[in-house]
Amino acid sequence: MPHLGAIADDFTGATDLATMLVARGFRTVVAVGVPGGGQDAADVPAEADAVVVALKSRTAPTGQAVAESVAALRALRAAGCERFYFKYCSTFDSTPRGNIGPVADALLDELGAPGTVVVPAFPATGRTVYRARLFVHDDLLDESPMRDHPLTPMRDSHLGRLLAPQTVRAVHRVPHETVRAGAGAVREALDAPQARDALTVVDATTDDDLRTIAAATAHLPLVTGAAGLALGLTGPHGDQESARARATGRGPAAVLSGSASAATRAQVGHARRVLPSRALDPQALRADLEGAVAGLVAFATGCWREDPGRPPLIYATGEETAVPGSADPGAAQLVETALARCATALVAAGARHLLVAGGETSGAVVTALGARTLRIGAPIAPGVAWAHTEAVSDGSAHPVDLALKSGNFGGTDLFTTAWGALS
Ligand SMILES: Nc1ncnc2c1ncn2[C@@H]1O[C@H](COP(=O)(O)OP(=O)(O)OP(=O)(O)O)[C@@H](O)[C@H]1O
Ligand SMILES: O=C(O)[C@@H](O)C(=O)CO
């Protein structure tokens, strides 16, 4: 029976946390959407040690994000989970109104818990928190590319200031000096009257800091943060090999990239020199979506015939493409639909491994594939792993391995090296 239940506000964030939990010895399943539609715990596998519910709630209307998150919490409790983790983005992606604060408040209220910690630091991916300011590698959050994110532009780096307008609770903070003084000092700071009922931002710049915070919060029913905080959790399978799901076996593969992030654009640039590739043309999609998708699928299956060892790359934005702004949401939707249709057609044509780049894109692909659960397997890079699922295509189930890559994760060669982790 699962002990740990997590609620992630997007799909790549869910596999990011699940990857970390597997590395910490939890057999982990990602449930796509609220298990059992919120009615029961039918979809929660009893053999899992941890379940991560993948929602698409980051930029949903706040009422919907809160309702889905509370429904997920209820399903996880019904499945036997006793501790909970609210996973949001390591760049604290949110609007001035939410959804991080409102969801954290609602989950605490549902659990009857007064307060909790806020820990977006994830040093392995360059996210650190010092003096309550969030850094992305060398830059403050509001000086990083996140400043101009089309959906959640981050124009401040101070987590207290970002959070205060989002929550009905007080916002408190625990400085780095206290973290360095050890788990006892952090626990004492969290038990102080001004912190007990608050959302408390805790500084962390290293993995050891995260382990200290995890030790200091082991008594809390709910913690919140990015995947880094899970570094300090320990699952029942010390040997992470036995916590991992097995891969599908040999079969055709492809990369579907709908991400417009700087890291992905560099990965596309690198992969195009090595793999056969095709760029999506939004104008062609608009003129004849079905025809354009059929052309892309024919390209990919032709590549498989020519050289089964080289996965074709289908991408929306590369180094040479102008980065799409928020001006044309219709085009973004069209790109997502096209890649989702490519995914279902490729699986029907025999694809067994799909590497998908972009959080929204991953949501569209996983939903189109009709995948209900993802079982996390071999790691590829911090925050990215292969995950085994059963896709429904043409009315029948097909075993598929998916790697869902968040836009800013992974080294430049990820699209060409990820396949090595499957063997
Ligand atoms: N050339 C393009 N023209 C129009 N829309 C595009 C283009 N390239 C990508 N998009 C759209 O931009 C969005 C990218 O978001 P997505 O979450 O998939 O990746 P991301 O930008 O890397 O973000 P994240 O960090 O959440 O992974 C998608 O909706 C995608 O369809
Ligand atoms: O925490 C992160 O940065 C990622 O897991 C994420 O949330 C991607 O959207």
Automatic annotation (TrEMBL):
Record-annotated Four-carbon acid sugar kinase N-terminal domain positions: 4-232
Residue runs in coiled coils: none
Domain Four-carbon acid sugar kinase nucleotide binding: 254-415
EC code: 2.7.1.217
Function: Catalyzes the ATP-dependent phosphorylation of 3-oxo-tetronate to 3-oxo-tetronate 4-phosphate.
NCBIfam families reported in the protein's UniProt record: OxoTetrKin
Protein name listed in UniProt: 3-oxo-tetronate kinase
Species per Swiss-Prot/TrEMBL record: Streptomyces tremellae
